[in-house]
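Input protein
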Amino acid sequence: MLSVTDLDLFYGDARALDGVSLAVEEGSTTAIVGANGAGKTSLIRAIAGILRPAAGSIRFRGREIAGLPSHVVCDLGIGQVAEGRQIFPSLSVRENLEMGAVIPRARADAGRSLARVLSLFPRLEERLGQAAGTLSGGEQQMLAIGRCLMGRPELIMFDEPSLGLAPALVQELFRTIRTLAAEGMTIILVEQNVAASLKLAGRAYVLENGRIVLSGTGAALLDDPAVKQAYLGL
């Protein structure tokens, strides 16, 4: 469904990604793990069209998308739940959700999409008229995911979704991700909770200093001594 080949990305003279290659199968959950500064968010932003790579290829369903504007990438079916949620705090919950359906692919089914989101997150239905900035952190994360789903994506990229959430809310978040995966959604998961993300993932990649240094099934990497030592404290 998605292939990244020999991707290079720079911030000025600083190299963020160095020859990164990976593949994401349709209907799979793929985890990308690594330390802070390893290049995980840079990779997500390059796929989303927010950053322009210096070299390499990003193909979605066979179409080259590297360098396309982010709104075009989104309309092709790639959604992103960004780090820090990035909701519109002064808009209501309903208005935030409606913003997710402004792209052409989503407009005709906005009503059905809203019903689906509210069935997935009943608490949002109770707060439709409430300013998004007054929601709790967990509710804001639900809203960010719901807004992404309003765009009717075929692939969702989660960038550090559990950041700043209480442990009970983290468990709820991962249940939501498992539900989406069970429904057939293709997922890329960048997550500080390495153990939880590897348990979810069919395939996983380890990024270090902008390079892929390990790849395999989530279960295999969870059992890898180097991963245990570097990321799981074992």
